[in-house]
Design goal:
The structure holds 2 protein chains of 2 kinds.
Chain A: H1 3-15, E1 19-27, E2 36-39, H2 52-68, E3 72-76, E4 87-94, E5 99-103, H3 109-118, E6 122-127, E7 143-146, H4 149-156, E8 165-168, H5 173-184, E9 190-193, H6 197-209, H7 214-219, E10 220-221, H8 233-249
Parallel strand pairs in A: 5-6, 5-8, 6-7, 8-9, 9-10
Antiparallel strand pairs in A: 1-2, 1-4, 3-4
Helix pairs in contact in A: 3-8, 4-5, 5-6
Chain B: H1 5-13, E1 18-27, E2 37-41, E3 46-48, H2 56-69, E4 73-78, E5 94-101
Classes of the chains: A alpha/beta, B alpha+beta.
Chain lengths: 270, 104
C-alpha cells in the first residue's frame, strides 16, 4: 500500500468521513499485485489499476460495499468483468461510526455513554434540562444537547439508519412518550426504552393512543436490555449494549454453551 | 486499519519500514471480519490483530519476509490446509491475509 493511501485513510477515519481502499490481492498479471485505489462518494477515484474498465468496475463496487458497510473481496476479469478469475480486489470499507442517541441525562446515562464509546459509536446525549445536560457530566459523549428530545429527534433523526440506536432512559411519560414517537419515525435500527414492566405497559397504552401501530410497537425494545440480572448503571449499560448487538446480528443472546453450531456465523455476502 | 493508525503513524515518522496484514476473506467460522488489520514494524513491533491470537505469530514471520523482499503476499491460514500450513485456527475456519509493505 502506498503511504499516501494510508494517510488518506487515516485522515478520513479521524474526520469520520467514508472512504474505501481497493487493493489488488491476487492477479494473473492483468493488474499489479498490491496496487491500490482510494474511493470516496462524490469524488474522483485516486489511483488506478492500469485498465479503465477495471477501474470503473472497482469504483462502482467500492461504493456498493460502502453502502453495505462491509469489507469484501471481489473477483474480476482483466477488463473488470464481474466474477472473472484474473484479479481479486479487496474492498476495505471505512464507514463513519454508527450513532447512538441517549435520551435522558440520568444516572444510567454516563455508563451507557462509556459502553457505547467502547463499541465505537458516536454518542449524543439529549435532555431538556440544561442543569443535567452538561458535557462535564458526560465527558466521553461526542455531543451533549440541552433540548426537548422529540424536537431534537425531529431535527436530527433523519440521518439515523439501520446501524444506529436510540436509547430512551428518562422513564417518565412526560419525556419519553414524545421522544419515542419521534424515535419510531426515524430509521434507527434499534429503539429501546428503560422502565419497569408496569411503566412500559402504561407507555404502550399512551403510544397506541398517540397513533403508534403494532409494527411500531413491535420495533420498540422495552423494557430495555438483555436479562443478565443487571442492577448497577454499568451492568445495565452492558445489558443494553448486548441487546443492541444481538438485535443487529439476529443472535439469540443466550449462553453459547446452550447452543450448537459455529460461534462466528458466516456473514452473508453483500 | 482503524486500530493501528496511531502506531503506524508513529513508525512512519520514526522512519521505520512497516508491513500491513489485512484479513481479506473469511470462510467458515472466523474470529475477525474482513478488514481486521495487524501492522508490523521492521523492528518487530506489532499493533492490532487478524484473529483471536491463533495466527499472529505466523503473520509476524510472513510480514518480516514481506519487508525483506519488498513484495506483497497472500497467505491462507486454517484448518482445511493443515498439511500446507503449520499454524491453524482453532475455530475451524480459514482466513486469507494479504500482507504488504507500506511503500513511500
Amino acid at each position: 500500500m502506498r503511504a499516501e493511501t494510508f494517510r488518506a485513510v487515516a485522515e478520513a477515519v479521524r474526520a469520520g468521513e467514508p472512504v474505501v481502499v481497493a487493493s489488488v490481492v491476487e492477479s494473473d498479471g492483468s493488474a499489479p499485485l498490491g496496487a491500490d485505489m482510494v474511493l470516496r462518494p462524490d469524488a474522483a477515484p485516486e489511483g488506478s489499476f492500469g485498465q479503465g474498465d477495471l477501474d470503473a468496475a472497482v469504483a462502482r463496487d467500492a461504493l456498493g460495499a460502502l453502502d453495505a458497510g462491509r469489507s469484501t473481496t471481489r473477483h474480476y476479469g482483466p477488463r473488470g468483468e464481474a466474477r472473472g478469475q484474473a484479479v481479486a480486489v479487496f474492498l476495505d470499507v471505512y464507514a463513519p461510526p454508527p450513532e447512538m442517541v441517549v435520551i435522558g441525562a440520568v444516572d444510567f446515562t454516563a455508563a451507557l455513554v462509556d459502553a457505547a464509546k467502547l463499541l465505537g459509536y458516536r454518542v449524543t446525549v439529549c435532555d431538556p434540562r440544561p442543569v443535567f445536560a452538561t458535557p462535564r457530566r458526560f465527558p466521553r459523549a461526542d455531543e451533549v444537547v440541552a433540548a426537548w428530545p422529540d424536537r431534537f429527534l425531529e431535527e436530527r433523526g433523519g440521518r439515523l439508519g439501520p446501524r444506529d440506536a436510540v436509547c430512551v432512559l428518562t422513564h417518565d411519560h412526560k419525556f419519553d412518550v414524545p421522544a419515542l414517537l419521534a424515535a419510531l419515525r426515524t430509521g434507527a435500527g434499534y429503539v429501546g426504552a428503560m422502565g419497569s414492566r408496569r411503566t412500559h405497559a402504561e407507555r404502550v397504552e399512551r403510544l397506541r393512543e398517540a397513533g403508534v401501530d403494532e409494527a411500531g410497537l413491535g420495533r420498540l425494545m422495552a423494557p430495555i436490555g438483555l436479562d443478565i440480572g443487571a442492577r448497577t448503571p454499568q451492568e445495565t449499560a452492558i445489558a443494553i449494549c448486548a441487546e443492541i448487538i444481538a438485535c443487529r446480528t439476529g443472535a439469540s443472546g443466550r449462553s453459547l454453551r446452550e447452543l450448537d453450531g459455529p460461534i462466528h456465523k458466516a456473514v452473508a455476502p453483500a | 486499519m482503524r486500530d493501528v493508525l496511531d502506531e503506524v503513524d508513529r513508525w512512519l515518522s520514526a522512519g521505520q519500514a512497516v508491513a500491513l496484514a489485512r484479513v481479506v476473506a473469511v470462510e467458515g467460522s472466523g474470529p475477525r471480519d474482513p478488514g481486521a488489520t495487524m501492522a508490523v514494524s521492521a523492528e518487530g513491533e506489532v499493533a492490532g490483530s487478524v484473529s483471536g491470537g491463533c495466527v499472529e505469530g505466523a503473520v509476524v514471520q510472513e510480514a518480516m519476509g514481506v519487508l525483506a523482499e519488498g513484495r506483497p503476499r497472500l497467505c491462507t491460514f486454517g484448518y482445511s490446509d493443515e498439511q500446507a500450513f503449520a499454524v491453524g485456527l482453532t475455530c475451524g475456519g480459514t482466513i486469507r491475509v494479504f500482507i504488504e509493505p507500506l511503500t513511500p
